[in-house]
Amino acid sequence: MITSNAQPLELFRQLELLSQGNAVLGEELLFVESWRGFTFSVDELNLAVPFIGQYEIFSCGVCNPLPMVTPWVRGMTNIRGEIYTVIDFAHFIGRRPIKATTGANLLVLSEGRLKSALLLENKISLRSFDHDIPRGDVNDIEPRLRPYLNSFLIEGLQRWCVIDMRVLINSETFANIGR
Predict the structure, then answer these.
(1) What is the pLDDT of residues 149-169, one digit of tens each?
(2) Residues 167, 170: Cα–Cα separation, whole Å
(3) Each residue of 78-125: pLDDT tens digit?
(4) Are 109 and 118 in contact (CB under 8 A)?
(5) At the fourth CATH level, which superfamily is domain 33-175?
(6) Fewest 10 Å CB contacts: which of 28, 39, 106, 150?
(7) DSSP assignment letter at 146
(8) CB pairs under 8 A, 24+ apart, for 57-64?
């Protein structure tokens, strides 16, 4: 929220934070009244990625296989002249691998040690979440996904696993693609 009696520089800082949708304070997310993010699903899991960092969405084009990589690495692709490692996110978290890249989407990650894009079979949507959605216990989530979760939200009959992308892209498991 913007403080009405703030000094000009503080007012600009508050406006900057609001324009980003979310802001990072230490390790916690600051939710103003609501927060926005990308949503997608892997099997029956509903997943959300807050708009923190820079992400882009592309249709998956040609994905060239790589030798001697972990099974969840689908290959490499060229996006605007840059080479990205394509990670089958469903397979990475222990689910069935995506069968075909045709019609799949890429969530391009601009940060981390590995220039990568998450291959997602289902449609990626935009969504706003209220800050007061009840939270569940992340220990109820499967172990392969749990280390990358920021929170687990319960909204009526829907459950949302909120992924902390910074933790994911900086993890040893994610960055170590070789066998």
Answers:
(1) 999 999 989 999 999 999 999
(2) 5
(3) 998 999 999 999 999 999 999 877 789 999 987 777 889 999 987 899
(4) yes
(5) CheA-289, Domain 4 (2.40.50.180)
(6) 28
(7) G
(8) 57/105, 57/106, 57/107, 57/108, 57/124, 58/105, 58/106, 58/108, 58/117, 59/103, 59/104, 59/105, 59/106, 60/86, 60/101, 60/102, 60/103, 60/104, 60/105, 60/106, 60/119, 63/101, 63/119
